[in-house]
Design goal:
Number of helices: 14
Helix content: 40-55%
Strand order of the largest sheet: 3-2-1-4-8-6-9
CATH topology of the largest domain: Spore Coat Polysaccharide Biosynthesis Protein SpsA, Chain A
Strand content: 5-15%
Number of strands: 13
CATH superfamily of the largest domain: Spore Coat Polysaccharide Biosynthesis Protein SpsA, Chain A
Number of domains: 2
CATH architecture of the largest domain: Alpha-Beta Complex
Oligomer: single chain
Shape: globular
């Protein structure tokens, strides 16, 4: 058997594996969406929502307002906005909302950067914010998220149980309102690659992760794992928090609720740096699973068939068949998550897949990442350090 024949056999084995994975992904997304939680009408525990901010994200005011306008007893929840820089424009916006929503408890604070020494600036911010939270549940969510008015009710439902075995509730996110081609490609990757991949993991392995888009945890459980200081020097603080809560013999639930990740018109280099940070973070957090994710790049694998075997009927037909299945599966999953970006821009999926494949390769070609304009080195244990010079 020649090397050429071995290469072709390997390609078609990978494509068969990709087809199986794609079918599993559709089933995983559908089964996640169909789960239901019974909740009593009077279940309304006290909640503190922590919103760490830095600068103004796209649609920042509408994002912040969505958390203020919850269909939830107004005396049962509060919002704490925090930034490291006291002059951060996001804090000025939060102060404006504080003056406007007088019936809602909104706190606006700035973290003392000289006393909290940790590499993870988001965690440093959260450590300073946490003492201002006095409620039973803590909700952590990234500043670029936008939610519906039933958000709090939906994400708290899994906690309405007597056995207290649920330790964390998290929920997926979808791209919303991208205004540049790189942002559209990122939204396509989130909706058709990342979220389906995590839901496959949920179905096959159980939930061992949490999304920074939403993490709901009891304040007592957070204290039991050592507080936020435990995550001061790790890059994947959301993943490490999930691992810590699992060590308490508690479970993690991915709620059947999706929030919007509001995007703007970011540049190609900004999107590349952010997604490369995600890729290298996942690579060090879950090295085996990340390496195995090569089977999810069916579009790129199919393209290699005509490059190796020539541009005749079988390899070209393989490319067309793979792209058709990819588009159909992506749209079915997008309907389950309400992802309008995927349903609108699905013809760009091959370009999105090619971009993602380049990131996959690049994730193995270095260990530095950019985060909020600063450069860091990621270490094998998941910790990271600032690169100087």
């Amino acid at each position: 058997m020649t090397l050429h024949e071995v290469a072709l056999i390997f390609i078609y084995i990978l494509l068969i594996a990709w087809c199986v994975y794609t079918i599993i992904a559709v089933v995983a997304v559908r089964s996640w969406r169909l789960q239901a939680w019974k909740s009593t009408q009077d279940f309304a525990p006290t909640v503190t929502m922590l919103k760490p901010v830095k600068g103004l994200d796209a649609g920042a005011e509408a994002n912040f307002r969505s958390f203020c306008e919850q269909d939830y007893p107004i005396d049962r929840f509060e919002i704490v906005f925090g930034a490291l820089d006291p002059n951060d424009p996001a804090l000025q916006l939060a102060a404006k909302l504080q003056r406007e929503y007088t019936n809602l408890s909104i706190k606006v604070i700035s973290a003392p950067t000289d006393t909290l020494h940790c590499q993870n600036l988001k965690v440093r911010n959260l450590i300073a914010m946490l003492p201002h939270a006095s409620n039973e549940f803590i909700v952590l969510s990234d500043s670029d998220m936008r939610v519906r008015s039933d958000y709090l009710k939906r994400i708290l439902q899994p906690f309405d149980t007597d056995d207290a075995k649920v330790g964390i509730v998290t929920c997926p996110y979808r791209g919303f309102g991208p205004k540049s081609l790189p942002s559209i490609l990122e939204a396509l990757a989130i909706g058709s690659e990342f979220i389906p991949g995590t839901l496959v993991s949920r179905m096959l392995e159980g939930v061992t992760f949490a999304f920074g888009a939403t993490i709901v945890v009891r304040a007592a459980d957070l204290q039991a794992v050592g507080g936020l200081g435990r995550f001061a020097n790790v890059l994947a603080d959301d993943y490490q928090m999930a691992q810590a809560v699992l060590s308490l013999d508690k479970s993690i639930v991915v709620a059947p609720h999706v929030v919007d990740d509001v995007m703007g018109g970011e540049s190609l280099i900004a999107i590349w740096r952010r997604r490369l940070r995600w890729a290298r973070t996942i690579r060090v957090s879950r090295p085996g699973g990340y390496a195995g994710s090569i089977v999810t790049y069916g579009t790129v694998i199919a393209l290699s068939a005509p490059l190796i075997d020539g541009f005749h009927l079988l390899p070209l037909g393989t490319v067309v068949a793979v792209w058709a299945l990819r588009a159909i599966a992506a749209q079915i999953m997008a309907r389950s998550t309400g992802d309008t970006v995927v349903n609108k821009w699905w013809p760009l999926l091959p370009l999105s897949d090619l971009f993602s494949a380049c990131l996959f390769v690049a994730s193995y070609l270095g260990n530095t990442v950019y985060w909020r304009g600063e450069r860091f080195r990621v270490h094998r244990d998941g910790s990271f350090s600032r690169v100087t010079g």
